[in-house]
Amino acid sequence: MNVFGVDIGGSGIKGAPVDLERGDLAEPRHKVLTPQPATPEGVAGCVAEVVEHFGWSGPIGVTFPGVVTGSTIRTAANVDKGWIGVDAAALLGDRLGGLPVTVLNDADAAGVAEMTFGAGRGRKGTVILLTFGTGIGSAVFTDGRLVPNTELGHLELDGHEAEKRASTKVKDDKDLSWEEWAHRVKKYLDHVEMLFSPELFIVGGGVSRKAEKFLPLIKGIRAEIVPAELQNNAGIVGAAMAAVPR
After folding, report:
1. Which of 7, 51, 161, 180 is deepest in the core (most CB within 10 A)?
2. Distance CA 223, CA 53 (A)
3. Which residues, listed in sequence order, are joined to residue 1 by a DSSP beta bridge?
């Protein structure tokens, strides 16, 4: 069964039909740049562009980079603050001609996909997926059950929000070497490990494609650390999974 998934990020919006039997994209994804400013109407237009690229008509799952309760947006760290208080499912459904839309936190979607089809499959205990990109997203699982909307990228690190110190955007903006950035990521993982004592960290986001460049540089973490197997498609897959009627 194919269902459509869309992953809204601070820099790009990407989507594709997803084969939920395989947990993989059924067609190559289509990506557009996130509008700046990333207002609700602007982003909704881009989501519609991605969906219409495939001529899709059916249920759609959409991730959002912030806290989502029900389908209402509660925080918007890396997109326009005008999102706060918006019923995202209603807004996007209207823009998509009444198609049924399900909205959830972006890292939660990626985590559910990794726990079902990827690096967390069959793992018990506490597992934490961290997505490194424009910000840092998090998904926390205990024996496979999601604790939603944890947003651990906003923990304080060195007097700043962690994502202002250790996201891949910071690496790019400050032209940090892999060694310099890995040192920051290690400090962040130390802090998260102190709080949650996970058995496993899954590192996701686009940077997971280059895991060999930085994961071997991170020493002294007790938990196992592995790259996301679905890499940067995990959010799309998890979004599609959320759109399936239960």
Report:
1. 7
2. 41
3. none
Contacts (Cβ under 8 Å, ≥6 apart) of 132 = 166, 167, 168, 185, 203, 204, 205, 206, 207, 208
H or E element at residue 90: helix 88-95
Mean of the pLDDT values across residues 129-148? Answer: 97
Summarised one tens digit per residue, pLDDT across range 153-177 is: 999 998 999 999 999 999 999 999 9
Beta bridge partners of 19: 2, 24
Q: Tokens standing for 145?
A: 């059950």
Token pair 């071997």 is found at 216
For 238, list phi and psi in degrees, rounded to 5: -65, -35
Cis amide prior to 17 (ω within 30 degrees): no
Give the gyration radius of the chain's Cα atoms. Answer: 17
Chain centre distance of CA 144: 17
**pLDDT grade for 245, boundaries at 50, 70 and 90:** confident
Q: Spell out where 27-97 has E strands.
A: 30-33, 60-64, 68-69, 72-73
243 pLDDT higher than 70? yes
